[in-house]
Input
Amino acid sequence: MKMHPVEVADLTVAYHEKPAIWDVDFHAPAGVLLAIVGPNGAGKTTLLKAILGLIQPSAGTVTIFGKPARKQMHRLAYVPQRGSVDWDFPTTVLDVVTMGLYGKLGWFRRPGKKEKQLAMLSLEKVGMAEFASRQISQLSGGQQQRVFLARALVQDADLYLMDEPFIGVDAVTEKAIVELLRELRSRGKTVVVVHHDVQTLKHYFDWVLLLNVRKIALGPAQKVLTTRNLQKTYGGRAAFLNGNA
Amino acid sequence: MLDYTLLLVLSGCLVLGAVAGTLGSFAVLRKQSLLGDAISHAALPGVAIAFLLTFSKHPAVLLLGALATGWVGTLFILLITRTTRIKHDTAMGIVLSVFFGLGLFLLTLIQRLPTASKAGLDKFLFGNASTLLRQDLQVMLALGGLTLLFVLLFWKEFKLLAFDPDFLHSLGRNTLTLDVFLTTLLVVAIVIGLQAVGVVLMSALVIAPAVAARQWTDHLGRMVALAAFFGGLGGVLGAVASSSLTNLPTGPAIVVIISLMFLASLLFSPHRGLAKDWIRQRKHRKEIHANQVLVALFMLSKSHGSRYYRHSLTSLQAVTPGSAEAGLEALKKRGLVSGSASGWKLTPKGAQEAEQAAKHIYGEAP
Output
């Protein structure tokens, strides 16, 4: 069997009694843009965090490129939700992007000229080079998201895991992010994105995992995004989606 | 009269302040300010237990005891938060009060012991820097130096642990181990200050220098250095104050001085200071008010058929909020209106600006 970038088997995560995700099997094939989609409380972020090992699952396994996730962290890059950090932290844009290289630097070594150059290159890719020395509290939401993406890009990983990168960003940033995702795909990278907007799914992503605590469907976007599947995922509330689905 | 004893006391307070400021910076940035308070109170029973076990008052022994229960208290907080539904602040409150109560109980017990060497342990409550001995300073220097060395060695890990721990985890680092390590360093920083500052007030020395330093800089390295400086300076000045006033314990003296530094930073720092905010807001409010007067003058003139119609102050006052006169004087300075007590009218430049402002407020056709 081929080694998938991510493979999740029988994964169950429960906070106290109530399961957040229940017996989910899923994999992302190499070189696809995959969206994890579902209503609020469907367990999208939980699934991503369980893949990363940030949450201990009650049952099930996660493998990354065929090996246990915790041994493969150097092959993945994680983009957390923008709101998960305090943007008033005393640091600059360039410094945050340089953090992406801390793993490669290893213990005790400080980032030097080479690391700063790599970080600058990455900032250029997201159109933020001119903000390099800016204090991070002075960024807009879209700019914050670009900085987080630049930090992941500098890691030069094979697998990218992103938590809601499109939330609260302006239209220009949204377009820039989509282009970035496509560029990653063209270089053979695999990108798994927690997403909330059903309308843009088909345009942005190749593969979709529909999730509502349990897996509803997984596969190529065209095949999976049927009215029936969406209704199963979102319940009665999917009625308004019919025209676009 | 910088004699040997005073020099020793000052050095001790310098070290404990600098170390507390450094580790306090990380505690404050990680939103764990109150953890310092819990740790220092949790250290008290350790001092008492160490004495009861050894009947020695050697600083290494007592501080080891403080370190042990301070650390166990911290571990309890972590365990309670992780395994029960009790929230972090409640867990800290429980540990703080239970350990502190136990400490006071044991200290009272020690006071009733018939040994001669029991005296002096109560200095751990409010601190007494004047009792610092050469061996105390040696222990403080050794532990404090080691703590600072570790902070430098693990600088980038601690920075990321404070800013984005989930991302640190995704780099393959064990965040739990690093968390316990950094917290242990905080315990050490607190424990070396206990004899001079006391368990009750030690947390102020952890929090205040860091918060004060944050006001002056947006750079982590500079913030930590500045917090260490504030802490060290506060320690030294507090020790001087307490040695020159009879019966003033060192802890309160240091805390008062550090609080003054904190207050000054909060008010007068260039970017984040309240004074700056206040001045900016006031200026902004004045500008808005002046613009309101300008637009009122414009609209009133237009209704009279001429942009440059002259109005009396009374008629303007009727259509403007607040004092029309103050607004007019401000506009006159900007060359937008001309006039005096006899009446006011727009200048050409003023009419232009007013028209634009009116368009902005009322849309295309005012």
Chain B has two domains: 4-272, 276-362.
